Automatic annotation (TrEMBL):
Entry coiled-coil feature ranges: none
Gene Ontology molecular function: proton-transporting ATP synthase activity, rotational mechanism
Gene3D superfamilies associated with the record: ATP synthase, F0 complex, subunit A
UniProt keyword annotations, A-Z: ATP synthesis, CF(0), Hydrogen ion transport, Ion transport, Membrane, Mitochondrion, Transmembrane, Transmembrane helix, Transport
Membrane topology: Multi-pass membrane protein
GO cellular component: mitochondrial inner membrane; proton-transporting ATP synthase complex
Subunit structure: F-type ATPases have 2 components, CF(1) - the catalytic core - and CF(0) - the membrane proton channel. CF(1) has five subunits: alpha(3), beta(3), gamma(1), delta(1), epsilon(1). CF(0) has three main subunits: a, b and c.
Protein name as it appears in the record: ATP synthase subunit a
Function: Mitochondrial membrane ATP synthase (F(1)F(0) ATP synthase or Complex V) produces ATP from ADP in the presence of a proton gradient across the membrane which is generated by electron transport complexes of the respiratory chain. F-type ATPases consist of two structural domains, F(1) - containing the extramembraneous catalytic core and F(0) - containing the membrane proton channel, linked together by a central stalk and a peripheral stalk. During catalysis, ATP synthesis in the catalytic domain of F(1) is coupled via a rotary mechanism of the central stalk subunits to proton translocation.
Gene: ATP6
Family: Belongs to the ATPase A chain family.
Parts of the chain that traverse the membrane: 20-39, 72-94, 100-120, 127-146, 188-221
Principal place of residence: membrane
Length: 225
């Protein structure tokens, strides 16, 4: 039963022995018509509104580390994760963010680039950051070990947080949809209502997780400067 349950996350669409499910990671771009970038409309206004809000939020978090264009990578990361999370709620569309392969491919390069930039350009700051201000001398060796471990597991926690939230919601919807056999009409209507509410909740989770991952990445970047 558990094997069949988790098999909904297995890539299963092949073309010439090549997995085609991962194409869904760029599927969001296909829903943006060419006229969207040229003619101002309500979708463009909404996109521009969200981008400006995110820009102001990330600019505040970066503080003295902000320079022109520095928020673009985090805004792009937000929309990329959001499209993959949201499109995964539609039937027969592969949810790439429910795999650690995808989430680690996003978090690991970001974390590694932040660490390399910090240790190469701000070595003294990185050493100072390992020991919080006011730490007793006897606890300093332990704080260095704790801070080092917390830095190393950061890409893993980002990836697991995103993957676990995507898997949990999809498993709940799968479990609810598989219990509709041999039920009364009223129970089926209650089940449909629960499915609708769960879909609304998962839509909110898709947005929240995109925002959380992006905010944490921004904070990690601000710490290395």
């Amino acid at each position: 039963m558990m094997t069949n349950l988790f098999s909904i996350f297995d890539p299963s669409t092949n073309l010439m022995n090549l997995p085609m499910n991962w194409i869904s990671t760029i599927l969001g771009l296909l829903f943006i018509p060419y006229s969207f970038w040229l003619i101002p409309n309500r979708h463009f206004i909404m996109w521009n509104f969200i981008s400006k809000k995110l820009h102001n939020e990330f600019k505040t978090l970066l503080k003295n580390n902000y320079f022109n264009g520095s928020t673009f990578i985090f805004i792009s990361l937000f929309f990329f994760i959001f499209f993959n999370n949201f499109l995964g709620l539609f039937p027969y569309i592969f949810t790439s963010t429910s795999h650690l392969t995808m989430s680690l491919s996003l978090s690991m390069p970001l974390w590694l680039s932040f660490m390399l930039y910090g240790w190469i350009n701000n070595t003294n700051h990185m050493f100072i950051h390992m020991i919080p201000q006011g730490t007793p001398y006897i606890l300093m060796p332990f704080m260095v070990i704790i801070e080092t471990i917390s830095n190393i597991i950061r890409p893993g926690t980002l990836a697991v947080r995103l993957t676990a939230n995507m898997i949990a919601g999809h498993l709940l919807m799968t479990l609810l949809s598989s219990t509709s056999t041999n039920m009364s009409f009223y129970m089926i209507m209650i089940l449909i209502f629960m499915q609708i509410m769960l879909m609304i909740m998962e839509s909110a989770v898709a947005i929240i997780q995109s925002y959380v991952i992006t905010i944490l990445s921004t904070l990690y970047y601000s710490e290395v400067n």
